[in-house]
Amino acid sequence: MKTKLNKPGIPQYVLNDFRHLHRQEGDTSGFGYSNLDVSKRIAGIEIYSSEGLRPAVGPLKSDFYRVSITLSGSVDVQLGLEQFKHRPGTLSFTFPGQVFSKSNIAADTFGYYILFNGDFLQELIPGDMIATEFPFFDYAGVPFIQLEPAPIAAVADFCGKINEELQQHRPGCEKAIRMYLYLLLLEVKRSYLSQQLHLTATDTRNTYLVPRFKKLVSQHFLSKKRVADYAALLGVTPNHLNRTVKEITGHTASDAISQMLVQEAKAILRYTDTAVSEISFQLNFSDPAGFNRFFREQTGQTPLAFRKNA
After folding, report:
1. Per residue in 156-198, pLDDT tens?
2. CA 58 distance to own-chain centroid
3. SS3 for 85-148, per residue?
4. Non-local CB neighbours of 73 within 8 Å, separated by 6+ positions
5. Which of 45, 273, 274, 303 is the most exposed place for a label (fewest CB within 10 A)?
6. How many CA atoms lie within 13 Å of 297's alpha carbon, on the beta-carbon side?
7. How far apart (Å, rounded) are the C-alpha atoms in residues 238 and 241?
8. Are 282 and 275 contacting, i.e. CB atoms less than 8 angstroms apart?
9. Is pLDDT of 39 > 90?
């Protein structure tokens, strides 16, 4: 079943119709929501261990928040245009509407991940204030962090406490789970702010420019497709932006914009039955032929061929 929100044809999954995309069939693990009795489930939050996780997830979008925690092994995660290699102690974060994918999960990988709706923490923080309270959930923030042994142990302990509340389902468990989730995010925020303060003091403007550019592309790629648009937002010349992006990434700024469009197109082709002509319109191409030509140049195959093999 394909669940679509907001823009017709663009897949953005809701929490109660997402499990089939990230859990293997026949999953026998017993942590968190895996095989949890329906009577014990709490609306608005789900937590899992990596046992029973599909070998690859996405690219796709969701309308909820995600925290991924790696305790051992490694996994590749892509959030928008930003790519990260999870290793022991790595956390990454996604927020509603963000393109997300996970792949290359090593055999020895173990960790946890938490999915929750924006209103789940409403008693503690308004849903529209989550990105303000926890900046790693904001476009302008850094969507991953590497924790030291003590804080990562604390985060893992909070995951265990959430699981215990789910399994035992004692009176007040829903409120306890909200509190543990908030405390987990607060633990991460303390390390995050400390690390960002250090980065702000030591990074040069050019090394800051590229991640900021990537975030802006992830946010505006459907409406802004010229390098000059992003240069204006960043207060630099198009030539300077192109040169800096090329020096640091090996690719041009235009390549980054194209990559984001391709990710979006792949998600629509893989998870919906939307006609190619309609996808062309949604992605603001002048005509379907232009979209077909662009997709083939970027991927080496036509949109229909990609859909058939996805």
Report:
1. 999 999 999 999 999 999 999 999 999 999 999 999 998 877 6
2. 10
3. EECCCEEEEECCCCCEEEECCCCCCEEEEEEECCCCCCCCCCHHHHHHHCHHHCCCCCCEEECC
4. 87, 88, 105, 106, 107, 108, 109, 110, 111
5. 273
6. 10
7. 5
8. no
9. yes
Report phi then psi at 204, rounded to 5.
-85, 165
261 in Cβ contact with 97 (< 8 Å) = no
The reply to whether 233 falls in a domain is yes
Q: Final residue of a domain: which of 153, 174, 201?
A: 201
- Please report whether residue 6 resides in a domain: no
Domain that holds residue 168: 12-201
Same domain for 161 and 251, yes or no, is: no
- Cβ-count burial of 70 within 10 angstroms (0-12 exposed, 13-18 middle, 19+ buried)? buried
Rg (CA), the chain: 20
Q: 143 is written with which tokens?
A: 């969507």
Paired with 251 in beta bridges are: none
